[in-house]
Design goal:
By secondary structure, the protein is of the alpha/beta class. The protein is 46% helix and 25% strand. α1 packs across α4 (125-147).
Length: 151
């Protein structure tokens, strides 16, 4: 399987973490429904944050929400490298060290150039919730497409 990485980038409070967490929950539900279960190894799991590796058959997917600091990004990516994830989704700020760490990981560890999607910031809470869910749905579609053909 081809390795792939998706960097969800955006400014502070744009909903990056919420969006990636929603995508994690939805993708995990898909895998449980389709395969009857999945092994999950967590680095952290809170109401708002997650860094985890999902394993189903030979497929290993890493998702991490904490992207505001270089050290948080490194923690998640270190877990993904140790577990030989083929697909990686992580949140980072739009620029600076956290983004650079994610880009470097993509090239050095996965040997691919990451796709980068910018998460826009909505002005009101209701729009933000809808935008987060729609963006999470796009991430899940990306994960489904990228994982096709994996047992």
């Amino acid at each position: 399987m081809k390795r792939k990485m998706l960097i969800v980038k955006g400014s502070g409070s744009s909903g990056k973490s919420t969006t990636v967490k929603l995508a994690f929950e939805s993708f995990l539900q898909d895998l449980v429904r389709i395969h009857g279960g999945a092994d999950v190894k967590y680095l952290y799991l809170t109401k708002r944050e997650v860094a985890a590796v999902i394993k189903v058959g030979k497929l290993r997917v890493g998702l991490a929400t904490r992207g505001d600091s270089e050290s948080h990004v490194k923690q998640g990516l270190t877990l993904f490298a140790a577990n030989k994830c083929q697909l990686v989704v992580c949140a980072t700020r739009s620029r600076g060290k956290p983004l650079q760490v994610a880009q470097d990981f993509s090239i050095q560890k996965l040997k691919v150039r990451a796709e980068e999607w910018k998460k826009p910031k909505d002005v009101d809470a209701r729009s933000q919730q809808s935008a987060n869910q729609a963006f999470a749905n796009d991430i899940v579609r990306w994960l489904r497409s990228a994982s096709r053909g994996t047992p």
